[in-house]
Write a structure and sequence with these properties.
The complex is a heterodimer of chains A (about 425) and B (about 450).
Chain A (H helix, E strand, L loop, with lengths): L1 E2 L21 E4 L5 E6 L5 E8 L12 H8 L3 E2 L2 E2 H10 L3 E6 L4 E8 L2 H16 L5 H18 L3 H14 L12 H6 L2 H11 L5 E7 L3 H12 L21 E6 L4 E9 L8 H13 L5 H8 L7 E5 L7 E9 L3 H18 L3 H13 L1 H4 L3 H13 L6 H11 L2 H11 L6 E6 L7
Parallel strand pairs in A: 3-9, 10-14
Antiparallel strand pairs in A: 2-3, 4-8, 4-9, 5-6, 7-8, 11-13, 11-14, 12-13
Chain B lengths: L1 H16 L3 E6 L5 E6 L5 E8 L13 H8 L11 H8 L3 E6 L4 E8 L3 H13 L5 H20 L2 H13 L13 H4 L4 H11 L5 E7 L3 H11 L23 E8 L4 E8 L12 H13 L5 H9 L3 E7 L8 E9 L5 H17 L4 H17 L4 H13 L5 H4 L1 H6 L3 H11 L5 E9 L7 E4 L6
The chains are: A alpha+beta (about 425), B alpha+beta (about 450).
Chain lengths: ~425, ~450
């Protein structure tokens, strides 16, 4: 299937309106876990997520440990092995998944609310979360799988570029670590490392629970207590260190036998609670965040046919997440495409958007609010974001107002202060023609 | 036998799930409209499906359906290039389009009040497209970049492309949806105009609307905008029937890569090609796919990944809903220290077991439980629901068949799974492809400070 437009990865930078946002209920369990719940009675199913502040930013020297810990929970728990765990979920049609990025480690369960399915699935979910055993044989196999995964990265120019981007953007900051680690570190990991990581971070004070589905408040309270039962209380993870801005422009080039050059450009962007969030979000929407109608897409794709997709996005995190620009183009056009991308950014910083562009962006963002919360899974993602980053519970209710309040002057001011076209990290991965002269 | 009891209640849930309120209308000009009301959220998905895709193409113009899909955003008698996208964006919408072997489809996701915007402009570009030669030249470049990104620089995609070309000789599934590069670089405006003229008409389209709407109101809107469009003499499609395969085909693809990769594919019937009295066969193959790779408890994960450790990852997939005869695919990456040959032998051993020994009642129950649960989960997405209806109608299958999917799977027996294994998993209809990695010659990154090189 070939999708025409490049689908932008605007990671959880979403919008809302006042009239149709879900009714979020929030409380804290006896064991100090915060719970975020939305009642969605229409379908006989429930989505439950448990989120820990235990992403790769917590890896310390053991790169890859957070990711492997998350991947190993269902490889052995209580008295059960991986086969028994997988069979228990599958036998009632339940879906379990684990993922871990830089900030969050997320464990999700989707199950029918029919009693038998629900009981089997939630019990197993709790067992996996609270009693993982990290068996030696499963560990070894998982370790091999991670090493193969790292090898696979090397046959993807985009993965190579992404790694170079994060490593150079963040240098020694924990965000510079790829969640998948690196071969040297992954080879050295032991089950004891995972166990220690689990003991420190998979604790109820460092967790939040998200529940969306056909369960009432009372049931939801029971679920939250039940799925986190057995977790040690522990303590919340400490604040991450501040991110340093880039001191000067930096260029990283890597030769790769591909027909295209992958170009990534960026700098440290914003944190989730950033005061400039709204002007920067709306401004970037116009510049490179709105798919086929963005300025970058117009300049590079529509006017010049240089790329299939170009985008820019802020990825707000606990500390400054990246502001990233990305495209791929045939090798011989790499310098031209990079130049157009830079010129477009520079012009935007200088002139800002027009009133008409701003109005268009506002209509798009606010008019599309209903689409952003039109399914249980999307609502669950929002709850995780609101809970994890400590956003106000009326975040969705007030979002459209905040978008509508943004002015051209605010966008210009925020971009001038926060985005520096002369201090960008640029990563080029591709054919020989992209080598600097 | 706890799991079997689980299945009993799951099966009992089925009737209650057939609540879907679907209405079907035929306009006088031949356009089909299908509306599914789903009032969970104040949104609507609108999709226009055309019966045309890469399997309608012949050599020399491969990929033309896909590039035409791109050109559909490049202006009509009433809109400038890219104005369509801007209008949808200004209405708070999300939009896109996709081309497959058997279909080309356009969609918008909007607040329920904005459906009219979709209909107005979809009707316009159904009949009023302008193919501007200068725009086409640029778009050929864009599609060439798309091909480089998806295929040329992706070793597994390169393998799949060669695999299909080897597995299918006379069937149009031989060529890639995006087209061969030399075809992409040589379409002219008249090629596109002819293709548009041939396939873009109300009597070759299905409009699917799912969301918080009233079916009658949607019909009125459809009559207003699509009703006046003139039908076209739609070309009859040559059958391009695949010749019978007479023996195992084996190919290698050498490409810069780190990891080898294995693909195996057997010719199997789809619901569209199976004989009437054998209608259960494609569903037995669905169950078989679930037995092998339906999640982490299935045989591939349990035996090939965890027990024998011969694969890092390996999956199986059936082609239930294709317009023409298609493949049952197995593909995977060998584990560290294992070869593609080791993995092939292990897969063959799995297939032999299916031929020789009946699957267990627990396994069958597990697959059915997953399917039943999935019919609930997929209702969380209005887009998915619309996709399913549009895709089925466009390949010539009544959308109701989608609603019956779980019933059909539930009717499959262990004996039937064994029967299809014995009948279809034979070497004479098997194609095997191996990705042979060439060195990447990756150098360490070079690093320069200062921006002299990039300005």
């Amino acid at each position: 299937m070939f999708v025409r437009a490049f689908v932008c990865i605007v990671a959880l930078t979403l919008s809302a309106t006042s009239w149709a946002s879900p009714d979020i209920q929030q409380w804290t369990t006896d064991n100090n876990t915060r719970v975020f719940y939305v009642h969605a009675p229409e379908l006989p199913m429930v989505d439950i997520s448990v989120v820990f502040n235990a992403g790769a930013a917590r890896d310390d020297e053991k790169h890859g440990v957070s990711n492997m810990t998350a991947a190993m929970l269902d490889e052995g728990a209580g008295s059960l092995d991986a086969d028994a765990i997988a069979t228990a979920f599958a036998s009632v049609g339940a879906k379990y998944s684990a993922s871990s990025e830089r900030d969050m480690a997320v464990f999700s369960l989707r199950t029918l609310t029919e009693k038998n399915a629900f009981n089997t699935a939630t019990e197993m979910f709790n067992t996996v979360l609270s009693k993982p055993t990290f068996p030696a044989d499963a560990f070894q196999r998982t370790q091999q799988r991670f090493l193969i995964g790292l090898q696979a990265e090397k046959q993807s120019p985009q993965a190579i570029a992404t790694r170079a981007f994060y490593e150079n953007l963040y240098a020694k900051h924990p965000y510079g670590v790829m969640p998948s680690g690196n071969p040297e570190s992954v080879e050295k990991l032991t089950p004891a490392d995972l166990q220690a990581f689990y003991q420190q971070y998979y604790v109820s004070s460092n967790a939040l629970v998200v529940i969306v589905g056909a369960v009432d408040r009372k049931q939801a309270e029971k679920i939250a207590t039940q799925v986190t039962a057995g977790l040690k209380t522990g303590a919340p993870a400490e604040a991450l260190p501040k991110v340093s801005e880039l001191a000067e422009a930096q260029l990283v080039q890597q030769s790769y036998p591909s027909t295209q050059t992958t170009i990534l450009m960026g700098q440290p962007g914003i944190s989730r609670d950033d005061a400039d969030y709204f002007p920067l979000y709306v401004g970037n929407h116009i510049l490179g965040g709105s798919g086929l109608v963005s300025q970058l897409s117009d300049e590079l794709r529509e006017k010049r046919g240089l790329t299939y997709g170009v985008y820019s996005y802020f990825r707000p995190m606990q500390q400054l997440g990246p502001y990233q620009f990305a495209l791929q183009t045939r090798n011989e056009k790499a310098q031209e495409a990079l130049q157009v991308m830079r010129d477009t950014l520079t012009a935007f910083i200088d002139k800002g958007p027009t009133e008409a562009e701003l109005n268009s962006a506002k209509q798009n963002i606010t008019g599309g609010f209903a689409l952003r919360v039109d399914s249980n899974s999307k609502i669950a993602d929002y709850l995780a974001m609101i809970g994890f980053y400590g956003l106000p519970l009326d975040y969705l209710d007030s979002f459209n107002d905040k978008i509508n309040a943004v002015t051209v002057a605010q966008i210009k001011d925020a971009f001038k202060r926060r985005v520096n076209a002369d201090k960008m990290l640029t990563v080029l991965v591709g054919g020989e023609t992209t080598q600097a002269e | 036998m706890r799991k079997l009891k689980n299945l009993a209640w799951l099966a009992l849930m089925l009737p209650s799930l057939s609540w879907a309120q679907v209405s079907e209308f035929d306009l006088d000009n031949g356009l089909k409209l299908i509306v599914k009301e789903d009032h969970r959220a104040p949104v609507v998905v609108s999709q226009v499906w055309y019966k045309v895709g890469s399997s309608y193409e012949h050599n020399g113009i491969t990929g033309i359906s896909h590039v035409l899909e791109h050109m559909m955003f490049k202006g009509t008698k009433n809109l400038k290039p890219n104005e369509f996208s801007q209008i949808i964006a200004d209405n708070g919408g999300e939009q896109n389009a996709f081309t497959g072997q058997d279909y080309t489809a356009y969609f918008q996701k909007l607040h329920k009040d904005r459906l009219e915007v979709s209909f107005k402009h979809e009707a316009d570009r159904m009949r009023n497209l302008i193919i501007d030669p200068a725009e086409l030249l640029k778009e050929r470049d864009v599609v060439a970049e798309e091909r480089r990104m998806r295929t040329e620089d992706n070793p597994q995609a390169l393998l799949r492309e060669s695999f299909n070309a080897a597995a299918f000789m006379s069937s149009p599934y031989h060529h890639p949806v995006i087209g061969w590069m030399s075809d992409i670089q040589n379409y002219d405006a008249d090629d596109l105009r002819a293709w548009y003229q041939k396939w873009y008409a109300p009597n070759n389209a299905t409009v699917v609307v799912v969301g918080d709407v009233d079916a009658k109101a949607v019909l009125d809107l459809a009559k207003q905008y699509f009703g006046p469009l003139k039908p076209e003499q739609v070309a009859s499609l040559k059958p391009q029937t695949e010749v019978e395969q007479r023996g195992l085909r084996r190919i290698e693809v050498k490409a810069p890569a780190e990891l080898p990769y294995l693909m195996m594919g057997w010719k199997v019937p789809a619901v569209t090609t199976v004989e009437a009295e054998m209608a259960w066969e494609p569903y037995a193959l669905e169950v078989l796919a679930g037995i092998l790779s339906g999640g982490n408890s299935a045989r591939f994960a349990r035996e090939l990944v965890r027990e024998q450790q011969v694969a890092t990852s390996v999956g199986a997939g059936n082609s239930l809903f294709s317009r023409l005869q298609d493949l049952f695919m197995v593909a995977g990456t060998p584990a560290n220290g294992k070869t593609v040959q080791d993995l092939e032998l292990a897969v063959r051993d799995q297939i032999d077991q299916l031929k020789q020994t009946l699957i267990t009642p627990e396994e069958l129950a597990r697959v059915k439980a997953q399917v039943v649960a999935e019919t609930v989960y997929e209702k969380d997405s209005v887009f998915y629901q619309a996709m399913q209806i549009g895709m089925l109608e466009t390949i010539g299958v009544d959308w109701v068949e989608g609603e019956r999917y779980a019933d059909r799977v539930n009717a499959v027996t262990a004996e039937q799974v064994q029967a299809v294994a014995q009948k279809y998993f034979v070497d004479d209809s098997l194609t095997i492809a191996e990705l042979v990695p060439l060195p990447l010659d990756g150098r360490r990154p070079t690093r320069n400070s200062g921006d002299a090189h990039v300005r």
